Amino acid sequence: MPSASAPTLESVAARAGVSRATAGRVLAGSARVSPAAREAVLRAASELSYVPNQAARSLVTRRSGSVALVVVEPVERFFNDSYFPLVLTGAQALLAEREVQLVLVVLSTARERERFERYARGGHVDGAILVSVHGRDPLPQHLADAGIPVVMSGQPLDPASTVPYVSADNVGGARTATRHLIERGCRRVVTVTGPMDMRVGHDRLAGFREELRAHGHRFSAKLAEGGDFTVAGGRAATEALLARVPDLDGVFAANDLMAAGVLQALAAAGLAVPGRVRVVGFDDAPLASAATPPLTTVRQPVVEMGRELARMLLAVIDGEPPVAPVVAPTSLVQRATS
Amino acid sequence: MPSASAPTLESVAARAGVSRATAGRVLAGSARVSPAAREAVLRAASELSYVPNQAARSLVTRRSGSVALVVVEPVERFFNDSYFPLVLTGAQALLAEREVQLVLVVLSTARERERFERYARGGHVDGAILVSVHGRDPLPQHLADAGIPVVMSGQPLDPASTVPYVSADNVGGARTATRHLIERGCRRVVTVTGPMDMRVGHDRLAGFREELRAHGHRFSAKLAEGGDFTVAGGRAATEALLARVPDLDGVFAANDLMAAGVLQALAAAGLAVPGRVRVVGFDDAPLASAATPPLTTVRQPVVEMGRELARMLLAVIDGEPPVAPVVAPTSLVQRATS
DNA sequence: GCATCCCGTGAGAGCGCTCTCACTGCCTCG
DNA sequence: CGAGGCAGTGAGAGCGCTCTCACGGGATGC
After folding, report:
1. Which of A121, A192, B39, B130 pairs with B14 at a CA distance of 20 to 30 A?
2. pLDDT over 50 (residue A2)
């Protein structure tokens, strides 16, 4: 409850001895106003510690001045995945420059999703950055169809999607990782793939296959085993691969968590890393440098991607029509496993 | 950009063949409306997939229907402290029940703080839950003075603060921990304290002293060494304590991170836990059960405290005047270090 | 010296909603 | 059978802001 009713533009104008219109001009920073009037208004505003009423403002401008960063994940995952803090940092940085308030929304339940849709459609935010969209989740397209500016991280699986996105160069990164293994002398390179209901899973496998072919190695299904982006999944996949390809000497894991599982399985099998088998992961998660031995991995510029997502969203909000997807370059971080 | 202009109450009313007032009544769920009119309005609204314009609504109701959960921390700390996900979960749960949208705001820089104040004062949110307020940070009182309903977690250090808060029973919890050590046979019990610029540091030390006295042990300054709630701080403090009190056989660490440091230092000194020295922490962080050996600790009901914070904030927003602070009970979780 | 320009300003409409007030018509009651 | 009541409805004001439009007056141009 405001102690008294909050000061309005009207009261500022009255105190400054000008009309509401003039006061508005000054506060909007725009247009031609006499220095005298400007100063009077500014003083009045600060004396009353005036803050414009957002509701009134957005009623006419149809802008709220804030955007949502939406994470569709259980709360625990949100806090345990190293990806989110980095995206948040990047997006926050750019939005702060543009004087846009970022609000974070974690959607764990169907009910929360629904509420958020009403929230967004009601004009509470001018747009949304969706991170961690799974499979063919219709949420992004749904919001976009409702006229809400939306961008997302990661290429959508649905080819019909028109939502602009920012993605790491997963194919290129996987090629780099694979090439690195081959160049380090590996002759029997295998891969632990990500989930195939995500685009990222497909792309990292595709890069692996392409690079193999480029070096005259032949790809066959037995060289790839599906993981689920978890440590346990990586371990299980490695065990399966070892059974099928006992002489494997290089492993490309489609993310670092699985790479950690790979290292565990190799250690359990008594295979030295990098002496007997070389391993490369993907993501450059904090865990990568903390692993034993420290993991060679492919870094994606997540902070920059967060910035780019924010920039992109503002472009969509400003109605710049053809917002092209962005593919961010990856780079190899060489540590001890290769 | 909305594809077409969004449907308004006016257009719903027109389609339903009633006046705006009647349409409003139906959608507000209130008052006496004929079944026929009600049904017509409902159908029109759903056909147009009408969502009320929040700006217009809050302009008149002076309510936004959302509240902020504000974390004054660097982004990394926000993601690395196990406290936040739990508070968030609790608050989110209660707010969802009351149909209030929660927005999360992370304030890392002075600039972001300032922006948030304008954001809140502009009426974007109806109130704020502040977690992780440090020392005598004036932010809570500042917001409260500006007429923004505010509640906070943790008792403020400033005795003049009028901001309602939810705190764990830190004194009681510390007493429980200390009593437990004494009852397990410890004769020389020491404590690693939290930072003294936080109320929680004071209180956990106070509980330690009280319980010591209650058992006829005398407290002296050499039995307490200041830590900073970090693992490294806990280790350093333990080394200092060991130098001063070589025959110590019980350590109460004011949080689990420091307790982990205590365990490290004791291991380094070759002192068996719990054989030679018993250790109790505070918080029941995930790390506590993962430590070697698993840590006995004092649990605070953080999820419930999050709920309570949300409930409290809604009470303040609804203008229920005397909102009393809440002190949540703690409980001992016995594991292997005692 | 008179028409033209434009700078600084104020009046006023209107964004979409909520809420009060007044009106109509039907039902109830004396 | 007339007065009162009340359910259902509509008209309209107004929340605080932005933005267009029009207007007075001083400077400029030929």
Report:
1. A121
2. no
Q: Is the pLDDT of residue A169 over 80?
A: yes
Residue type (1 letter), B128: A
Give percent above pLDDT 70 in chain B.
98
Domain A66-167+302-327 in CATH 3.40.50.2300? The answer is yes
B319 to chain A, any CB pair closer than 8 A? The answer is yes
| pLDDT tops 60 at residue B2 | no
What's the gap between Cα A308 and its chain centre?
9
The minimal CB distance from A122 to the residues B54, B78, B85 is found for: B54
Tokens 């296959």 — which residue? A209
DSSP 8-state symbol, B5: P
The residue ranges of DSSP E strands in B147-276, in sequence order, are: 150-153, 165-168, 189-193, 224-226, 250-253
| Phi and psi angles of residue A229, each rounded to the nearest 5 degrees, phi first | 70, 15
List the structure tokens of A94: 């750019």
What is the domain partition of chain B in residue ranges? 9-61, 66-167+302-327, 170-301
Domains A9-61 and A170-301 share a fold: no
Q: What is the mean pLDDT of chain A?
A: 91
Rounded CA-CA distance A297/A281 in Å is 4
- Give the end-to-end CA distance of chain B in Å, rounded to a whole number: 62
Instruction: Report yes or no: A8 and A23 within 8 Å, Cβ to Cβ.
Output: no
Encode pLDDT of A207-249 as tens digits.
999 999 999 999 999 999 998 988 999 999 999 999 999 999 9
CA-to-CA distance for A40 and B105, rounded, in angstroms?
34
Three-state DSSP at B106 gives strand
**60-99 on A, CB < 7 Å from strand C:** 60
Nearest CA to B285 among B71, B77, B80, B38? B80
pTM of the model: 0.85
- How many Å apart are A28 CA and D24 C1'? 24
Residue-wise pLDDT for A42-91, tens only, equals 999 999 999 999 999 999 999 999 999 999 988 888 887 888 889 999 99
CB contacts under 8 A, A 96-115 vs B, are 96, 99, 101-106, 108-109, 111-112, 115
D6: residue with closest CA to C1': B32
B285: its two tokens: 């962080």
Structure tokens at B179: 């009593």
Pairing of strands A224-226, A189-193: parallel
A243 touches chain B (CB under 8 A): no
B-chain residues within 8 Å CB-CB of A106? 88, 92, 104
Given this model, what pLDDT does residue B4 score? 54
CA distance A273 to A337: 6
Residues 6+ apart with CB under 8 A from A49: A7, B146
| CATH for A170-301, options being 3.40.50.10610, 3.40.50.80, 3.40.50.2300, 3.20.20.70 | 3.40.50.2300
